[in-house]
Amino acid sequence: MDQMAERRPSELAEATSALIKHIVGAIEQAAVVMEPFYHLEFVGIFPVLVYAAMLAGLPRNNDYRPMHGRSKGNDLADGTHTRVKIDLFPEYIRHLPAEQRSVWRMVGDALCSEPVKNAFRRKLAPALGRRFGAGAQDVGMFPIPILTRDVPGYKITPHTDTHWKGITVQLYLPQDESHTDIGTIFHDVLPDGSMPKARQMKFAPNSGYAFAVDKHTWHSADTVPAGVDTRDSILLTYFVDQGVLKVLRNRGKRVGNFLLNEVRART
């Protein structure tokens, strides 16, 4: 991982700019799939060398902290958390070793950039318009990228994501294609209320998907089975950032998570 060792600010800025350009290109070239709802499917979202550095720089288990919300219901009997995370903001990753800090700072900064956000807006315009109407492209979006790790026992039942969210993106980070059958599942909703599986993402290296959150975007994940060491991915969520309540909530959540992370780092 020498190419991702601790960098001077100017070098980091140059590398981040190149990464942003690559990600924007990958979004523009993403496949648009209409069923069971409008979504994007990515291949090669990161450059090959950057992806290799990300895999080499995955943090140790004890560098992550537990997820809240639905994930807590999947804790094992011995208290093991089946989904943990690291927020990819500078204030969170500063506790990582220097070589890991460089690669995740670059990735986090790129994913939070305006060009990447605007690329998602353009590519998801039809779905965003369906939810937000004619002014969809002007709706504020606040990006929160988190590195997540799932272990056997984690699952999530069909859900649509909270209305606080505007865009959901998941970027898969497996080492190989040995467990492509554990990707996210998208569901149809039938008149009788049943939700059969309509499409399943392949948990393949350097791939992923994105969709505009709406009341019909039902998705889930089957239980991570024994035999899978970890299911690593990046969840990039764009929270709706419009109106005083949402703006304060988004920034307050970031500050609150930072304080929790600092307490954890010190204890």
Labels describing this entry:
single chain, 267 residues, alpha+beta, 4-stranded antiparallel β-sheet, 7 helices, 24% strand
Largest sheet: 8 strands, antiparallel
Give the overall shape, derived from the CA principal axes: globular
Q: Specify the structural class.
A: alpha+beta
SSE string, helices as H and strands as E = HEEHEEHHHHEEEEEEEEH
Number of DSSP strand runs: 12
Low-confidence stretches: none
Q: Please name the CATH topology.
A: Jelly Rolls
Q: Count up the helices.
A: 7
The CATH superfamily is identified as q2cbj1_9rhob like domain
CATH level-1 class:
Mainly Beta
Using only C-alpha atoms, the radius of gyration works out to 18 Å
The percentage of residues in β strands lies in 15-25%
Question: How are the strands of the biggest sheet laid out side by side?
Answer: 1-2-10-7-12-5-4-3
Can you name the CATH architecture? Sandwich
Distance between the termini: 29 Å
Your description of this structure?
The structure is a single chain. Helix 1 crosses helix 4 and helix 1 packs parallel to helix 5. The protein has one domain: Jelly Rolls. It is built from 7 helices and 12 strands. The chain is α+β, with helices and mostly antiparallel strands and 267 residues long. The protein has an 8-stranded antiparallel beta sheet. Strands 6-11-8-9 form a 4-stranded antiparallel beta sheet, with no helix packed on it. The mean pLDDT is 90. It is 33% helix and 24% strand. The longest helix is centred in the last third of the chain and has 23 residues.
